[in-house]
Amino acid sequence: MLVFAGLFLPDGYPEIAKLLAAKAGQGTKVRLTFGDPDSDAVRRRGEEERIGDGLAARVRLGLLYLRDAIGAPGVELRFHATTLYNSIYRFDDDMLVNTHV
Predict the structure, then answer these.
(1) Please, are residues 5 and 34 in contact by the beta-carbon 8 Å criterion?
(2) Whole-model pTM?
(3) What pLDDT was estimated at residue 86?
């Protein structure tokens, strides 16, 4: 999962963190890649969206929602400082790409 905050996942699927941890426990490799809330890329995107520090707060909230998965065996958390043009979610043979317009 490559996102800045990815809040729509826990909003739409409240049990996503437990599901990711369970899948990782069954051998699925889970990599969560969030925007670094302290990075220039997140700050710049917050300014572009006219929400200032709101995007960094959304990243932190996303991490809070996924706390049951973060640190579970088989779940890897990484941070990026990249301007995203797409958010990418890949599951088995399916990939969802949300284009940022």
Answers:
(1) yes
(2) 0.84
(3) 81
Q: CA 74 to CA 31: how far, in whole Å?
A: 8
Query: How far is Cα 29 from Cα 14, in angstroms, rounded to an integer?
Result: 21
> What distance lies between CA 65 and its chain's CA centroid?
10
- Domain range annotation of the chain: 8-99
pLDDT band for position 89 (cuts 50, 70, 90): confident
Contact (CB, 8 A) for 61 and 10: no
The residue behind tokens 């809330």 is 37
- CA triple 57-82-96, angle to 5 deg: 85
Helices (H) and strands (E) in the chain, counts: 4, 4
